[in-house]
Amino acid sequence: MSTSPPAESAAEEAAVGVLETLRGVPLVVRVLLIGVFVNRLGAFLQAFMVLYLVHRGFSATEAGVALTVYGAGSVVGLFGGGGLADRFGPRLTIAASMLAGSVLVASVSLVSVYPVILVVLFFTGAIGVSYRPATAAILAANTPKARQTMVMAFNRAASNVGSTGGPLLAVWLIQVSWNLIFWIDGATSLVFGLIALGVLPRDAARGDRPAAKRPKTGYRMAFQDRRFVYYLVMVFVNAVIYVQMMAVLPLSVRHAGHGTIVYSSLFSLNAGLVIAFELLITKFVQNWPPKAAVMTGFVLLGAGMVGFGLPGGVPMLWIAMLMVTLGEMVGGPSVFSWPARVAPEGGTGRYLGTMQSVFGLGQAVGPAIGVALWNTTHQQVWWWTGAIAAVGIAIGYVGMRESEAVPPTTSETTSSETTSAETTSQVTAPAASATDDTETVPA
Asked: Is the whole-model pTM more than 0.85?
């Protein structure tokens, strides 16, 4: 198999605007973005799991444990999904994740024994998210490097819009029957799985290659890459800090004497700005070096978190949320596209899966860390958050700086350019013999 990248015109290499990017990407990318939107629009399980289990007569504690088990499964699924994508190919990974996930999520309404419910929820969480590293790998492989940041922003937008509209749809479905939310959830996963089978290219699976030509990849490779480990530490810290908006901020707002409407307005501000402006901001940020975008976003996030603890009442809270949201929009797409840039040949899925799993782990343990600090320090928790952010920024800066300084090589730490070219030749070449095919990234 040739390892040279396909010829690309100067126009393809240039970073362009929102509509130009969408028109210029292959059909496979556009269809995958639609698939992600449909899937997230019907992803009701996690958001309504606690209410559903309480509705069925389980205690609030049992419902909380079930949500934790589901989250643990998601972390495992993200980690393993990258390996599946590298070994069996993104197309089969996405299809298997969605088709099996559709059956599991629909079965939740049919199970009544609590231990069995926990087992089903764990595997639903694991299998239901294992497609995300594969979608990220296909997006990166089918997009010129200069446009990958914008495409990742499109993927985040598709996920965010779907996740925003989904709860509104679920509220209507619940009025008819609670079971409907699980059947519709399963149906949207089924649709995404069929899209993957029918549209995505028949990419070469790692296992289909002769043994002598298989890249020597594995998760150990990712953890032996010191620069990438530094990056993972930053991603973990970023997730721990970001999740405090859901864990500590409502406690802080109530402690300051504000009503629930204040917290709701802050959350609505964040969601509304991300949906309305992230793509426009990415139009400019995509021209920055990825390190500059990630560092700037993290600095804004840390500063906004500190702002939540400053005096000034509701106006200060709004300013702080504006800074946090701006940091999310500036740095988010580059954070999720960076692993594909630095992964060695055959390791894109594992690098993306490892990053997404670490991010999920940070979001899982972050609430416990934040609430513990809150119980000890109350409003001082925001200063601790800023200090922890500074440590994460320093560690991430070192890792991303060293990655940029390493010249292209064909050894175990192949440069991002070689990796992108390799993956492109693997994924897009088969598309010539098949029909149009498609794929997407995580939220």
From this structure: no
